[in-house]
């Protein structure tokens, strides 16, 4: 589908040169401070700097290279390290990211804009010529227990990551909730994914389990 060329190496712009101090604004880059002591927990999708291939938008030609990256799901910022200098990357400047977490498993992400105009990083769970199955992490803040008399607990809110699932087809995102009925009711009249809605309904797919939704989409793709 749209991201099948993610792993290809392209000859073009020297991104390292474009990310020099004088040209950072061209790619929405700026130095940053990601330290925040006002909550407990972490907004980061992975806990340490990890090498990944990043492709930037804005040029017809580009070079895909390895960079050390971290993604903040709260600020929706991709942090990038060049040498000892750290930057934040405006997501609207990013096309795709391939994260080399280890040699056996490679996570692939794509940047998409939702209907409200917000750019976010979506993990590619399944990609085919007909549709893609994507996952997105958001931050949820919750109040923690605190006993004033005993001074036990924490006054700081707790930050945790929650996942949302989506089907992507022909430029549109369709959220996949945890309840099948909610999905069927919402998209029963949506022509673009009528075949998917019908297949989920006929096979009574369990929406509470991500792998069952994924397996159903794989089977549906085989008969397309």
TrEMBL record:
Superkingdom to which the source organism belongs: Bacteria
Name of the molecule in the record: Uncharacterized protein
Organism: Portibacter lacus
């Amino acid at each position: 589908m749209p991201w099948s060329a993610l792993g290809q190496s392209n000859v073009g712009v020297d991104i390292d040169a474009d990310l020099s101090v004088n040209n950072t604004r061209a790619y929405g880059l700026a130095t940053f401070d990601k330290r925040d002591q006002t909550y407990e927990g972490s907004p980061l999708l992975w806990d340490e700097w990890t090498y990944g291939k990043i492709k930037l938008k804005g040029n017809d030609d580009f070079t895909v290279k390895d960079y050390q990256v971290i993604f903040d799901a709260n600020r929706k910022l991709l942090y990038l390290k060049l040498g000892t200098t750290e930057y934040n990357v405006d997501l609207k400047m990013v096309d795709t990211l391939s994260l080399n977490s280890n040699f056996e498993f490679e996570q692939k992400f794509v940047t998409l804009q939702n209907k409200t105009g917000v750019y976010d990083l979506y993990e590619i769970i399944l990609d085919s010529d007909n549709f893609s199955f994507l996952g997105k992490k958001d931050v949820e803040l919750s109040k923690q227990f605190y006993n004033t008399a005993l001074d036990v607990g924490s006054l700081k809110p707790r930050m945790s990551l929650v996942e949302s699932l989506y089907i992507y087809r022909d430029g549109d995102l369709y959220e996949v909730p945890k309840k099948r009925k909610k999905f069927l009711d919402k998209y029963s009249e949506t022509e673009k994914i009528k075949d998917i809605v019908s297949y989920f309904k006929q096979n009574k797919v369990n929406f509470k389990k991500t792998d069952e939704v994924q397996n159903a989409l794989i089977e549906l793709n085989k008969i397309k």
